[in-house]
Amino acid sequence: MLDERKIEQSSKIIRELIAEGKIIRPKAGLAEFFLNQSHKTLVIAERLIKLYEEEKLDTHLWVINTSYYAMFFQATALLALFNHKINVELGIHKLTFHALVHYFISEDNKLKKQLVEEYQDAVKDAEALLQLGEDKIKELIADFDHELIKRKTFTYTTEENAERSKAITSYNRAKNFINEIDKIYHKTKNQR
Length: 192
Prior knowledge:
By secondary structure, this protein is mainly alpha-helical. It is built from eight helices and two strands; from the N terminus they run αβααβααααα. It has a two-stranded antiparallel ribbon.
């Protein structure tokens, strides 16, 4: 889980990028592009799981990588929806994590604000909406960070083999992340 020290560290990094002009407004259509990429990539991760089940082909490393990229594309779409694009080439993955923490936990907490607005629109749905409160947001962003680390570990080191259980965990995290962010994305898009 994210503690206050990590949240402040992320905000500091993003404030520095803002000062350097490396957080820019995205081009029109970028959010939709990455949202579509995210969904397509999650389907590929699911197919890789099935490929293992059907042919016993070791796809675990690729399930982890593909699941992570589904989350990364979804995070990029969410940032773009709120008019943020990280304009760097090196370190984009970790910076995306820091941007999620900064914009959606530390600063103005747009996701919590979104939930309050949804609560006002549909009182009877309030309990379900409050499930995506601050703890849920921190959990989703922590899941993103775990998958970022796991992708790097399994892609660039040979000491550990990507096991099926870790691949399934990656896929389930990605699926949950995408489903939760989709709710916010579509609600925000419909309000504009």
